[in-house]
């Protein structure tokens, strides 16, 4: 395959040269004036945020790219538009920028009973959670924001005011309900409708009083306080993956059911012939592929699905995993069929090969080249970010949280005490508690800085020790890590399940019954279905094509046989591991715990950890270790995927460059929060599904033909066994 390697290499070089220059730029320096200048006359304030740092500029570029990609990948088919409004009553206080004078009200009639706010009052309001977040200046988030008044620089604070009679909070959203001809409040938990309502007439009155957020781009209704949101529908990428899974299951005649037992026999080594071409055994290939998929998706993904869509979301997640088995079978059979075995025994396979070579055989060479190139570029980007830096970052955070667990609990207690003192107006007690909190935060920050550097170096060393040895060493490590971490995690889940065995039938039934109710998400049954399918797609990656790279390295001369092994991946990942997580979340009630979700703001892996802690007090420490092992195994497997994609473009001799970059990325990912850079890379994993599934659908007739021939030989007893 001929790609513009020189152009790509030049682009990479330019980025590497420019980025350090951007990152070296310093943020704004603020010096307080010794004397307060005269205050400008009161006028509307225009936001004037501090100049972005070099990293913020880079992050902004990637954020724009992520937004553009989301617009395409997550465009919702069949969506409906609903009308809503937002309560936003506040009071603004300002002062000349850089001074220590009290903040003055922007308006005399601002709804807040204070003629001015000094520093102590501002601190109390911040502790009570009544201030809108300020700007980040010199890396520290302030209480105030920067603005311009009559062209003069000022800084201001915005006090959040509650709704009439305190019935709802600042930022409360009301969605129009045509059944009652009124706006009904939307709860924070799963966007469920609440009891409070306001009529269209009341909405007009509230707007006249300045209680409602204004839409900068009002639509044709002419009411500036109304917004529109998309409800229901299914994102294109989710529909694409789901449609592919259903197609392959039907086209392969439900092979995920009648071929399951044979797949288990293959993994057990019954047909392993050490003389066949390849680099790893069937089991090692499966372990390598699983190590890239079993991870945070199983720990956090299930919890996210159920907190958004309720227990029923997991039913659709489960169904997607079962259908995804045939997707994995088809793409991994093609990976084996069109792989290239070099004279030294190493293998190059996966979508990079079968999209080009396979489609060329069908007279679609140009299409195959384009699809293969798009997939390859996406795979490289995904391997550096979502498969590497993101994993390193999250594993480092998990281990850091484990070491700082006691201090973090103490910090949480101090935050509660500070808020209580602020509400009671005990300024002296609040300042004393804040001083203790600051000391503790300084200790935590100092330890965090040192820990991340050490952890990053250690993790990078262990990653390098494995990936520099190639797929054989990766497979050997994965074949030990994956079963170990699955056993540990599953054992904890089973312990909790057994302790509440009497509740299991009822909870399992709720998964099936709630799958066909539409209370959550405001999107009905389709909303619950979409959440489940989306999280399953993130969890098992069936259709992304990544697993085909690992399975193409297996020792076999029967492509269909390795496809059989691959179909076990989604079953283990989604049906077994995710089911255990789902039952734990249901048993502990974490999916519907208002205190944890709304008050404490827990989500994903943090909410899963809290659920386990409820039943096994010491297990969060084990879970932190499990997360690290999950992340480590994902890094080494995705590094292999990225290496093979890199080799496709730049050649085998240059793979050492990729490996070095991958090791460096592990360290960078541990010590730096890369924000939208990682979001962009994570999107690439989903993006890989578009060229891959299109190509696999076009090549699927040959896979079905091979499957039917293989099965006839299997039933005739033509295959030699070794166990």
Global geometry: globular
Instruction: Give the biggest beta sheet.
Output: 5 strands, antiparallel
What Rg do the Cα atoms give? 28 Å
* Terminus-to-terminus distance: 41 Å
Low-confidence stretches: 1-34
**Averaged pLDDT:** 80
Oligomer: single chain
Strands of the largest sheet, in order across it? Answer: 1-8-9-4-5
Features:
globular; single chain; five-stranded antiparallel β-sheet; alpha+beta; disordered N terminus; 723 residues; 26 helices
What is the topological layout?
Blueprint: H1 5-23, E1 45-47, H2 54-73, E2 76-77, E3 80-86, E4 89-96, E5 104-105, H3 119-127, E6 136-137, E7 140-141, E8 145-149, E9 152-161, E10 173-177, E11 182-186, E12 193-198, H4 200-208, E13 227-231, E14 234-235, H5 236-251, H6 255-258, H7 260-267, H8 282-293, H9 296-309, H10 312-337, E15 340-341, E16 347-348, H11 351-361, H12 365-403, H13 405-424, H14 427-467, H15 470-499, H16 504-513, H17 524-540, H18 546-551, H19 559-566, H20 568-588, H21 594-599, H22 604-615, H23 619-650, H24 655-671, H25 676-687, H26 689-715
Antiparallel strand pairs: 1-8, 2-14, 3-10, 3-13, 4-5, 4-9, 6-7, 8-9, 10-11, 11-12, 15-16
Helix pairs in contact: 1-2, 2-25, 5-10, 5-26, 7-19, 8-15, 8-20, 8-23, 9-10, 9-17, 9-20, 9-22, 10-11, 10-16, 10-17, 10-19, 10-20, 10-26, 11-12, 11-26, 12-14, 12-23, 12-24, 12-25, 12-26, 13-14, 14-23, 14-24, 15-20, 15-23, 20-22, 23-24
